[in-house]
Design a protein that fits this description.
The chain is α/β, with parallel strands linked by helices. The chain is built from 14 helices and five strands. The protein has two domains: 140 residues, Response regulator (Rossmann fold); 103 residues, Arc Repressor Mutant, subunit A. The protein has a five-stranded parallel sheet, with helices on both faces.
């Protein structure tokens, strides 16, 4: 039996060829194209799955996803990105992206994704074509901006690693090894690229995630602290107050709960249908 067909769309990729592609190729016949080719490619009649591969997506490249859903509404769409953002994840959900995968991706994550995709592909072969639907959500505001200086692919791996594992202890030596650098060189290159040290960047990411979680009224401040990697809630409060000017509890009162956050993902999914 012929393998199902996967269209792999590289959109704004500056790094090396995505290693995950080889894992998908075990189950799919892969056609790898660029974002520009997608606009001219009409050969989706026999396509079973589309995967958009981003580093940090911008507005023009993200628009390709709802356009693809309008043209081929029954084809499941996957999205790979290094951008770990609640706004982006919510946008993907509302745009009916089948699965959002944050790079770097392990083989286990890909296999879990494919376990969900296979029944959808089987159902698609036995059902009539879906009707096209209009896009459900505006593009995330963060996609209006690009980094001022392109980040080296090795440092992009560091950013993606932080985005996935910020809630646990991450040593500089661990990320330096991931980036295939010595710790001293990694520290120099990271500071030159981002204007802050690795630890300062990690701390900022934890606080950004904490602010998002504080929008969930069912989470206590202690729970939020532990969820973003602070074992001592008192220390978390001191760091938060120093950065934001108010304690976490005060921040929650001034901003209010965020019912559109990913902490209510199940409710949102039910509302979206």
């Amino acid at each position: 039996m012929a393998k199902p067909k996967l269209i792999w769309v590289n959109a704004g990729i500056v790094g090396p060829r995505e290693a995950a592609l080889a894992t998908f190729a075990r189950d799919f016949a892969v056609e790898e194209i660029g974002a520009g080719e997608l606009q001219r490619n009409e050969n989706f009649a026999d396509c079973d799955l589309v995967c958009f591969n981003f580093d940090y997506p911008d507005m023009s490249s993200l628009k390709l996803i709802p356009e693809t859903k309008r043209r081929w509404p029954s084809v499941p769409v996957l999205m790979l990105t290094m951008q770990n953002s609640s706004d982006l994840a919510l946008w993907a959900l509302r745009t009916r992206v089948f699965d959002l995968l944050i790079k770097p991706i392990t083989e286990q994550e890909i296999e879990r994704c494919l376990q969900r995709v296979r029944p959808a592909l089987l159902a698609r072969r036995t059902q009539s074509e879906r009707k096209s639907q209009p896009p459900a959500a505006p593009l995330p505001a963060e996609t209006r901006y690009r980094p001022q200086v392109p980040v080296a692919p090795r440092l992009q791996a560091a950013i993606a690693h932080i985005a996935k594992h910020f809630a646990r202890h991450i040593a500089e030596s661990e990320v330096a090894l991931l980036c295939q650098m010595s710790p001293s060189r990694f520290c120099r290159e990271f500071k030159a690229a981002f204007g802050v040290t690795f630890l300062e960047y990690l701390g900022a990411q934890r606080l950004e995630q904490a602010k998002r979680l504080l929008g969930n009224p069912s989470m206590s401040v202690t729970d939020v602290a532990h969820a973003v990697g602070f074992s001592d809630p008192s220390y978390f409060t001191r760091v938060f107050r120093k950065q934001e000017g108010v304690a976490p509890s005060e921040y929650r009162l001034t901003t209010g709960a965020n019912p559109a956050g990913l902490d209510n993902l199940g409710t949102l999914q039910a509302q979206i249908g």
